[in-house]
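In the previous chapter we treated chains in isolation. Here, by contrast, the input contains two separate entities that must be folded as one system, with a combined length of 233 residues.
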Amino acid sequence: AQSVAQPEDQVNVAEGNPLTVKCTYSVSGNPYLFWYVQYPNRGLQFLLKYITGDNLVKGSYGFEAEFNKSQTSFHLKKPSALVSDSALYFCAVRDWADSWGKLQFGAGTQVVVTP
Amino acid sequence: GAVVSQHPSWVICKSGTSVKIECRSLDFQATTMFWYRQFPKQSLMLMATSNEGSKATYEQGVEKDKFLINHASLTLSTLTVTSAHPEDSSFYICSARDYSGTDTYEQYFGPGTRLTVT
């Protein structure tokens, strides 16, 4: 069975400082990993994904994530946070063997960026 | 591209009535759609996987007779909450996979439907 852990319920960061949101995963085979962001009362917006290839993945809005197989992690990062980055962030994993492509989501991490 | 819409965006209904929520892929064909439920400040809980032309597959613990899913075309899936009760009040989100070309591995999410049962 696959699972995703986001160990932090909330991350607080000052505007302009680096932002990191942590994610670790567990799958039986090769993982497909995703980050999504959700603003209040909205659906999820795709940020980036890791399927194969380069461990450093660049995505939307200046976000990037690094796939670390040995640590089974896929932390989301942004060099300089903006107040508008304040939102709920979800890490998700898909088992490569699942033909329907079901995603398992982490619990979510609330990011609060203060001016 | 890859836009998913939901209708309605919010709905209030009385206990005992049924409510239908539509999920449409606007610019791509979606053989597979997913329905999620989300409680405030919590994660998404997968309710069911909807495949065009076949019966939906429900996750363990989800009542299939209460949450009726119909995926009648490649661009439309509907979720009907039958005999709704206050405990069914939640944020319902659908997503879809694009099968029209190379698998992008992504799910594209709708904006969600807020259901309140009084």
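Chain A has a mean pLDDT of 93. The two ends of chain A are 41 Å apart (CA to CA). Compare these points with the single-chain example from earlier in the chapter.
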